[in-house]
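chain below, 321 aa
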Amino acid sequence: MSFLFASAKNNGILAHRGETVYELVQAGARTYYINCPAKIGIYRANDTDVYLLDSGNDKDAGRRVRQILEQNGWRLAAILNTHAHADHIGGNQYLQRQTGCAVFACGVETAFARYPILEPSLLYGGCPPKELRQKFLLAQASDARDITDAAFPREIGVIPLPGHFFDMVGFRTPDDVVFLADCLSGRETLDKYGIPFIYDVGAYLQTLDTVAALRACLFVPAHAEASADMRELVQYNRQKVLAVADNLLACCAAPQTFETILQAMFRHYQLTMSFAQHALVGSSIRSYLAWLKDAGRLSVRFVDCRMLWALPGKEGDHRGD
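prediction:
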């Protein structure tokens, strides 16, 4: 573990309520992160102006972030979003309205930040029911611009990290602190839930290769502990992804419909079904199935108005459903 991380300065608890604590931690000369459910980065460009790396999951998160900024005498110049999931852009609208700051995102993520109904619609595969139109999956819209905009702060390095979502990126500050967004989950989370959310499995595995090759003074994943070396955690995430793929292949030893596959995976990982879990896990499983099919490891056949997934050469055996 690097000296920088071992000696990271703890500036104390500046905002909290209930069990959620928003704690400011110094990670570099000008780089900080707020330790909260989805870590929020801060880079101090000068004595007063700061850039926020993501904004938390809702208006309340934005309010707590604003309190931290005000207590330190900082002015919010811009929010740089790693990706447009609601727990990373939920504070955008509040902070933008309160401060007039700019908001930047990459590629398709910009559209999701501007039109957040896209997230639950994508996950559900249609117009989402009201159970999915909650702040957990549906943020408030913000006026986001693409990172190619001339106003984007060029001193912040952009690292493409696709896979978890369309055009997710990480950010490297001039202090050599890298914010990794959601490309890694902590061991405890992986052991508890088993199936991490992934939009593009192939791209995600390539991103793990990218992260394993990166070097920095400190890495800050959104949902895992900060560390100077992520290679062991990268390998653990890769193992979990490949284990999900192996379980899907075993499930499809005989042809199965998607819902039967989803049921089997929920039972295997001992997950509880709900609207949100059906959407999140279901979307990930569809992505896995598409990846396995495109790689020639699964095939599809349409029988009696049903779409059946099976191992190649097993399409005609209908005993599984």
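The two ends are 51 Å apart (CA to CA). Residues 231-251 form the longest helix (21 residues).
thats it, cya
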